[in-house]
Specification:
Keywords: Isomerase. This protein is an alpha+beta fold. It has six helices and 16 strands.
Length: 283
């Protein structure tokens, strides 16, 4: 348990996206369930109206202590006046890495939903919950209970905002490109990620991250990034050179992905991906 404002707060470490029956697999996230606070002890943060949060410095310190890629903080929200009885239970949700608060995180949202259901924090009979977030709007997570024989465990479905990346940014990385644009050339991207030039198919920018598409899943598995080069080149310089009102946030990091399929271990997989966020102490 964590301690805040002289209260013990329940916390869990949840392995999200874990293989069925596989202990210590998946992507771990810490989840801290915030209880009711004395008036004025914690500060409400819009748009999670009604939720009371400890100071940001405390939330960051706890995330550093867990030292996982993400720590999720959840707080129950009061029902709105006149809300329909069938309205989804609502919780405020925020995510912190060991270095900063982030605007959106998938696996920690899944972990938070699982922790709330397993702890009995969700009203009996509810099969979905809604999270109010500071920067990503409403996120809904639905839970499908395990089969009557208990096989397979509960399953979850998450409704997240789409973040389609823009066009291939390598078009600006040719002759005459400024330093930031040039860092997105296939040769420089490949060098930063530790792969062959020919493996780089596309470099694009989404709302929060750069997306690098490689030719094969095995190339994604083989990535050995030079994290200093990723920070210095692909993130800082490229952002400065490619200022875009559609992408007002500094890039958090780089997602490296490819289509799945084919033979071998990726035959039944739609896609594979890895993420590197050295600016957020996630590598």
């Amino acid at each position: 348990a964590c301690t805040a404002a002289s209260a013990m707060l329940p916390c869990s470490i949840v392995d999200a996206f874990a293989a069925e029956g596989g202990e210590f697999t998946g992507n771990p996230a810490a989840v801290v369930v915030l209880g009711a606070a004395a008036p004025g002890a914690w500060a409400p943060r819009s748009p999670c109206e009604g939720a009371h949060w400890p100071e940001d410095a405390y939330l960051l310190a706890v995330a550093k202590e867990f030292n996982l890629s993400e720590t999720a903080y959840v707080a129950a929200l009061p029902a709105a006046d006149g809300a329909d009885a069938a309205a989804l239970p609502r919780f405020g949700l925020r995510w912190f890495t060991p270095a900063a608060e982030v605007a959106l995180c998938g696996h920690a949202t899944l972990a938070a939903a699982h922790a709330l259901f397993e702890r009995g924090a969700v009203p009996s009979g509810a099969c979905a919950i809604a999270f109010d977030t500071l920067h990503s709007g409403e996120l809904v997570v639905e839970r499908e209970e395990a089969a009557s024989d208990g096989a397979g465990g509960a399953r979850y479905a998450m409704d997240f905002p789409a973040d389609p990346p823009g066009g291939d940014m390598r078009a600006a990385a040719g002759e005459g490109a400024v330093a930031g644009e040039a860092c997105l050339s296939p040769a420089n991207v490949a060098a930063a990620l530790g792969v062959e030039d020919a493996q780089v198919r596309t470099v694009a920018r989404g709302r929060f991250d750069y997306l690098v598409e490689l030719e094969t899943p095995s190339a994604v598995a083989a990535v050995e990034p030079n994290l200093a080069a990723v920070c210095r080149g692909m993130l800082a310089n490229a952002d400065a050179a490619n200022a875009d009102p559609a992408h007002p946030y500094p890039a958090r990091g780089v997602i490296v992905a490819s289509a799945g399929g084919g033979d071998g271990e990726y035959a039944g997989v739609d896609f594979v991906s890895r993420a590197f966020f050295p600016n957020l102490n996630i590598d």
